[in-house]
Amino acid sequence: MTVPPGSDPAAVLSALGRSWTWLLGSAVATLVPGVLVLVWPDETLHVLAVLIGLYLLVTGLFRFVAVFAREDHGERLPGLLLSVLYVLAGVLCLRNPLQTITALSLIVGVVWLVSGVLTLYTALAARDLPHRGFVLAAALLAVVAGIVVLALPTESARALTRLLGLWLVLLGLAEVVLALAWRAALRRAGLTRPG
């Protein structure tokens, strides 16, 4: 990422959001809580709520910065709405980590459903979106996961924990692939150094 000194904040955020390492950082922020949830599925609801809350907050911040990498300002609104949704949901999870599994399920289900719909809209509206099919598939997966969680909010904590952990791991791996594809595209365009 190269930004001249004295640049305005939007230019700094734009350069940061276009960086493949920023995408990789977002992938790691998604993957790590997923692995933790799968490794310790019998932990208390308190730990699960804190992990999910932190994931939502960090992802919201990553998405906020990524919005500024978009050239078309019309594409920014869905991204901004999504980042605000993630941050608010993260605050809700962290504000009352002892809430019931049903409340946590509803928060996560709504975030996934809205996230999937907004990502689907962006993928369909942005004609020159790289890896459009991959983004569409991830959006549809988010919509389905949101519907499943919202349809079954009172299922056992163990089932929800496994579903959340598995979804976060799959999403994190998808984001790693996307980050590496972005790095390859930047190298082909001569915009980054090899190695």
Can you describe this structure in just a few lines?
With 195 residues, this protein is mainly α. The chain is built from seven helices and no strands.
Could you walk me through the main structural features you see in this protein, from its secondary elements to its overall organization?
The chain is mostly helical and 195 residues long. The protein has one domain. The chain is built from seven helices and no strands. It has helices at 9-18, 20-39, 45-67, 76-95, 101-125, 132-151, 157-188. 33% of the residues are buried. InterPro entries: Acid_resist_chaperone_HdeD, DUF308_memb. The chain crosses the membrane at residues 20-40, 47-65, 77-94, 101-121, 133-152, 164-185. It comes from Streptomyces griseoruber. One of its GO terms (cellular component) is plasma membrane.
